[in-house]
Amino acid sequence: DAGVIQSPRHEVTEMGQEVTLRCKPISGHNSLFWYRQTMMRGLELLIYFNNNVPIDDSGMPEDRFSAKMPNASFSTLKIQPSEPRDSAVYFCASTPPGGSYSNQPQHFGDGTRLSIL
Amino acid sequence: GQNIDQPTEMTATEGAIVQINCTYQTSGFNGLFWYQQHAGEAPTFLSYNVLDGLEEKGRFSSFLSRSKGYSYLLLKELQMKDSASYLCAVRSAYGGATNKLIFGTGTLLAVQP
Lengths: 117, 113
Hints:
Shape of chain B: globular
Mean pLDDT of chain A: 93
Helix content of chain B: under 10%
Number of strands of chain A: 11
Radius of gyration of chain B: 14 Å
Structural class of chain A: mainly beta
Order of helices and strands of chain A: EEEEEEEEEEE
Strand content of chain A: over 45%
Mean pLDDT of chain B: 92
Order of helices and strands of chain B: EEEEEEEEEEE
Distance between the termini of chain A: 37 Å
Number of helices of chain A: 0
Number of helices of chain B: 0
Number of strands of chain B: 11
Radius of gyration of chain A: 14 Å
Low-confidence stretches of chain B: none
Oligomer: heterodimer
Shape of chain A: globular
Largest sheet of chain A: 7 strands, mixed
Distance between the termini of chain B: 41 Å
Helix content of chain A: under 10%
C-alpha cells in the first residue's frame, strides 16, 4: 500500500513568493495532520483535519499560513507571502478512523524541505 | 500547559543497552507514542503505551507510569543503524477525544563501535 505522499520533496524560493505544499493521505485514513520541524523547536503541529474538516488550527503561526482539505485524498498547506523564517521541513501525517482511542499511530510522509531565500 | 522533556543527546556503544527517558506534563492523557527518526527522513512508529507497565517489541521496549508522568524507551543489543533521533509524543485528551499528538524535541542517539 502507498504511504502518505507529499510533494514537492524540496522547494527553494525567494521571500515574498507563494508556496504550496501538497499531501495525499493513506487511502481510508480520515485524519490528516500538518507539522513543521526545525532544529530549534522540534516537531510542531500546525493544523489537523478530521473527515476533511479543520479541527484544531491553533498551531498555525500567522495569517500567512492557510490549509485546505477539499476531499479525503488531498490537502494543501499554503504560505503567502513566504519569509526566510518559514524555512523548515514540513511533514504531513494521517491516521485511520478511531484514532483517538486506539493504538493506531500517525503515518508520516517523507516531508517537504522548504528553503526561503 | 503542555510540556514534554527528553535529554537532547545520548551516546552508547554497539551491543549495549540504552534507556531514553521522557517526562510529560499535559492537559489530559490518552496514550504515549515513541517514534524513531533517521536524519533527513520521516518519523516512524516504534511503540505505544496507554496503561502503566512495559510493552516489549523485539529489541525495543517502552515503559509508562501515568502517575509519575514518565516513560522510557529501552533499546537492547544496540546496532549502528539505531543511531537516530527518538521522539516521545503524548496524545492529549484535553477538550475531549482528540487525535492530537504533542511531541518532545527528541533525543539524538549516537551508537559508537
